[in-house]
Amino acid sequence: MSPNKVSLNPCKKDAPYIFVSYAHSNKDKVHSDVLELQKRGCNIWLDSENMVGGKPVNQTDDIIRDRNCKALIFYMCERSVCSEYCLTELRVAKKHKVPIIPVHCFPVSGLEETITDLQRDMKSREQVITSDALIKEILKTENNSEVISIPYDTSSKIGEIINSLKNNNAEKVFTGQSESKADITTGSATDNESKDSLSEQELVAKADLFYNKKDYKKSLEYYLLAAEKSNAHALFMVGWQYDHAEGVELDYIKTFQYIKESASKGCAQGMFAVGYCYHIGKGVEIDYAKAMEWYLKAADAGWAEAERWVGYLYKDGCGVLKNYEQAMKWYEKARGHGDKMAMTEMENLIPLIEEERRAQELVSRYTK
User: Fold this and answer.
1) 197-366 has which fold?
2) Which of 16, 320, 367, 27 is nearest to 175 (CA)?
3) How confident is the model at residue 63 (pLDDT cuts 50, 70, 90)?
4) DSSP code for 340
């Protein structure tokens, strides 16, 4: 959904409200979540005019420390955890004891892995340490709830966000305009309802909830039900659980089957994973040509990591003629699209390019 097609309700600053901190790269997700929260009667402040990231620091300070600001929702991603604007907002909230509810937008299971990946990509070690320490300190604060994980291609955990707000005594931000109390508490079907009555998105939401709680048998149960409805994310996650032996025996054949089905339904991460399976022979025979085919599909679908793996194929000469210039081109594309490891690969490739250039010069010199 384009953020410019549906207008957000303006924040009522004379009433209790939530402040939303986010990176511009997540504007579509944030816009969708805010619309849903507003439908449930939630009063929200964010930079809604064109959804452009970045506010004057003094304005941010005033908005967050206002007595009507009852909580801050922080959308964690690779950009927001290193954004000076977002970090300033977190510092102000912490200073004025505003409860912080982190919403995790990475498709990984924990913060530690995210921070480790960030350290490889940041130019300033000091900035990484500052971001790392600040975020960990915030998440360990007693009045903050657990990180809410929101995988890329599923509906947001609105119910969990609402429960976190209530757990942090921020229930006054609800005006009670549209949802019953029971609906606001759960954000989805009640526990007494049968699985058959759940919609595709509700099945996925429950599966994600169980997965984040590491109840892998339950998550697999719900992912399988959603997979029967051809949900791309659910299909991918079933494959993921088979790949990592989470709640089920390790089975690379089923891993490949499910992720390929997810790829056929448009899951970009699934497309990349299919390419990876062909690349290393996981659940299928090694086929570099097919690996390249699927990496390119994933790249076209916006999965930056796939561009880096196209570079690997060119660097190693797998299924194509070895070509360092092509490898560098694909690494540069991946870096430009936010891939965290691409810069490291570019740096590692430079000595090989120089060595190849010197070899060509020697050949040229002695063949004249």
Assistant:
1) 1.25.40
2) 16
3) confident
4) S
